[in-house]
């Protein structure tokens, strides 16, 4: 069991792992004046996660657990002793072979949903969509989260440790997409840089969607936590979420039976296209910051699910190419990206686990600077073009 539901603020622990030496070409350690990085490679030995490849990176103050078998997901980060994760009732990790992504109901993806960062895509990333006959056309959140990386390697590049992997989403007569993920950290560092390049290996243009489902629970998320976000426009996804508009940026404590709420945003960015936001714990002693390039990820989604801890007390911070509606709804409104034959698109997302008042306050200042004095448009009811 990976999760201690009696102490939801505790770090999660992986099932038994068979550790092994790094493969040829994989970095084991590196040093610089700033510190040392060590890497461990292993495979979960038993249970629903048996066979999942694990890479653990230790920068000194920060430990990062990667799951290449689950689409290069980030399972948990521990920074200065504080865990950044959520306690999923799935209590995984779960091997992709046990996740019924194409379950006829369209939501089999939820049976493996367990990570701090999971990618949704590459062909579709939103709600399930069905043909007129009732047959599933696009499953919830796509396939990439349950697609094992074809190969994984680690190397030192310009003083940083880079762990990389490739995941393929291919189907004869349809698409030939390659996701190349590079996750990099610095010795002594407390920040994670993610660079994802989606390449179209086909001879014709291909369409793609991507959403980063970044999920944070206790100890950062608790009653009184708040979200700092610089935005241009906000809309609730449905009538239920509309009831939360006055308090969209604040979080209650866990409540059994809570019904999830989703809010949709266009965010503000600086001259280079970069934006930033932060989930801040009550009192500001801890925070989880997120920064990313809005050039390719122009939309942002906040998922609030303050259910009982046993049922998944969590919020999702979700940069995306589009809103998480059925794919055809988004396509009709021009929110599906196109990659030319042989071309590629690159997404950049940075994670900032923050511990200590000074670090939290410094990141909050970045968010406030982005917001400036400009006003934002707030829709009290769902905007028709944004929500199906």
From TrEMBL:
<dbReference type="InterPro" id="IPR027839">
    <property type="entry name" value="DUF4432"/>
</dbReference>
<dbReference type="Pfam" id="PF14486">
    <property type="entry name" value="DUF4432"/>
</dbReference>
<protein>
    <recommendedName>
        <fullName>DUF4432 domain-containing protein</fullName>
    </recommendedName>
</protein>
<dbReference type="GO" id="GO:0030246">
    <property type="term" value="F:carbohydrate binding"/>
</dbReference>
<dbReference type="InterPro" id="IPR014718">
    <property type="entry name" value="GH-type_carb-bd"/>
</dbReference>
């Amino acid at each position: 069991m990976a999760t201690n539901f009696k102490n939801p603020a505790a770090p999660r622990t992986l099932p038994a792992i068979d550790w092994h030496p790094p493969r040829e070409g994989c970095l084991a350690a590196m040093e610089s004046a700033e510190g040392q990085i060590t890497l461990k490679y292993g495979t979960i030995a038993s249970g629903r996660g048996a066979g999942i490849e694990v890479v653990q990176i230790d920068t000194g103050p920060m430990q990062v657990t990667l799951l290449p078998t689950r689409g290069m997901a980030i399972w948990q980060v521990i920074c200065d002793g504080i865990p950044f994760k959520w306690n999923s009732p799935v209590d995984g990790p779960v091997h992709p072979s046990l996740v019924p992504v194409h379950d006829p109901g369209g939501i089999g993806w939820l049976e493996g949903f367990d990570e701090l960062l999971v990618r949704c895509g590459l062909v579709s990333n939103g709600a399930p969509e069905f043909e007129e006959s009732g047959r599933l056309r696009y499953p919830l959140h796509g396939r990439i989260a349950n697609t094992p990386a074809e190969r994984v390697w680690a190397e030192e590049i310009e003083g940083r440790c880079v762990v990389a992997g490739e995941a393929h989403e291919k189907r004869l007569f349809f698409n030939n997409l390659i996701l190349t993920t590079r996750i990099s950290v610095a010795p002594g560092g407390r920040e994670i840089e993610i660079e994802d390049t989606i390449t179209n290996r086909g001879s014709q243009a291909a369409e793609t969607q991507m959403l980063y489902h970044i999920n944070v629970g206790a100890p950062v998320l608790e009653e009184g936590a708040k979200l700092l976000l610089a935005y241009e426009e906000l809309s609730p996804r449905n009538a239920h979420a509309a009831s939360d508009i006055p308090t969209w940026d604040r979080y209650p404590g866990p409540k059994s039976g809570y019904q999830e709420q989703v809010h949709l945003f266009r965010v503000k960015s600086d001259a280079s296209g970069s934006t930033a936001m932060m989930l801040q714990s009550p009192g500001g002693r801890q925070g989880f910051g997120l920064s990313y390039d809005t050039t390719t990820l122009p939309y942002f989604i906040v998922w609030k699910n303050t259910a009982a801890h046993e049922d998944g007390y969590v919020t999702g911070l979700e940069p995306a190419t589009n809103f998480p509606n059925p794919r055809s709804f988004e396509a009709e409104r021009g929110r599906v990206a196109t990659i030319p034959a042989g071309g590629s698109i690159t997404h950049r997302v940075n994670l900032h686990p923050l511990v200590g008042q000074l670090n939290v306050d410094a990141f909050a200042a970045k968010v406030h600077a982005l917001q400036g004095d400009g006003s934002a448009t707030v829709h009290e009811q769902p905007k028709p073009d944004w929500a199906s």
